[in-house]
Amino acid sequence: MKRQRGGRAIFPGSFDPITNGHLDIIERALCVFDEVIVAVLINAAKQPLFTAEERVALIKRSCRGRRRVRVDTFSGLLVEYAVAQSAGVIVRGLRAISDFEYEFQMALMNRRLNPEIETVFMMPAEKYSYVSSRIVKEVSRLGGELSGLVPALVQQKMHRKFRPTSTRGRDPGP
Ligand code: ADP
Fold first, then answer.
1. pLDDT tens digit string along 62-99?
2. What would the CATH number be for the domain defined by 8-129?
3. Is 73 in the pocket of ligand 1 (CB under 6 A)?
4. Closest Cα to atom 2 of ligand 1
5. Which residue from 26, 42, 111, 132 puts its CA 20 to 30 A from 82's CA?
6. CA–CA separation, 123 and 17 (whole Å)
7. Is there a contact between 10 and 122 (Cβ–Cβ < 8 Å)?
8. Which residues of 23-57 are buried (b: 16+ CB within 10 A; e: fewer)?
9. Using one digit for the tens of pLDDT, what is the confidence trace for 99-156?
């Protein structure tokens, strides 16, 4: 069956760093929407591993060739950013029941702030359902292998962050 695509959606998050779970959601969103803006939240209260610029660069490299994906940063209210971008939909990923409570709360608050912006939840492939930026950072910090769970570039960059003096592998650039 041919599906009709439409509209612009925002996929917001910390993306510290982007994982294959995020990429799975982006691919699914591209099947439904004309354009997907991957929006990196700049949150002064959080201490990220990667700077906002580094996170944007990693997302751009990971999404290279996907012409309908745009990468941006934002701060402040997400619904205000969505209006400024003329996007009617917020996409979020749902991995497990544990995500549900927080996501439900956020979606309803965003609806209260702007009833015209709809939140849509998408489920990743099961193989990514246990993947989070937090857990991949933890595994990388301890020297574990992550191929298949994050893009190769992300794995290399994390390795560099945790072992800055290591000479293993060539730095592939930003
Ligand atoms: P945030 O701090 O906003 O939760 P994240 O970068 O952790 O930022 O997540 C951004 C979005 O991506 C969230 O909707 C989250 O549920 C979703 N997400 C994160 N990891 C995965 C994954 N493995 N599969 C599907 N969705 C995911």
1. 999 999 999 999 999 999 999 999 999 999 999 988 88
2. 3.40.50.620
3. no
4. 14
5. 132
6. 19
7. no
8. bbbbbbbbebbebbbbbbbeeeeeebbbebebbbb
9. 899 999 999 999 999 999 999 999 999 999 999 999 999 999 999 999 999 999 999 9
Q: At 136, is the secondary structure helix, strand, or coil?
A: helix
Q: Assess whether 95 carries a catalytic annotation.
A: yes
Q: Which two tokens stand for residue 171?
A: 């730095």
The residue among 58, 61, 64, 114 whose CA lies nearest residue 86 is: 114
- Give the largest CA-CA distance in the chain: 53
Domain boundaries along the sequence of the chain: 8-129
DSSP-derived 3-state class of residue 30: helix
Contact between 156 and 173 (Cβ < 8 Å): no
Exactly one of 55, 62, 92, 133 is catalytic; which is it?
133
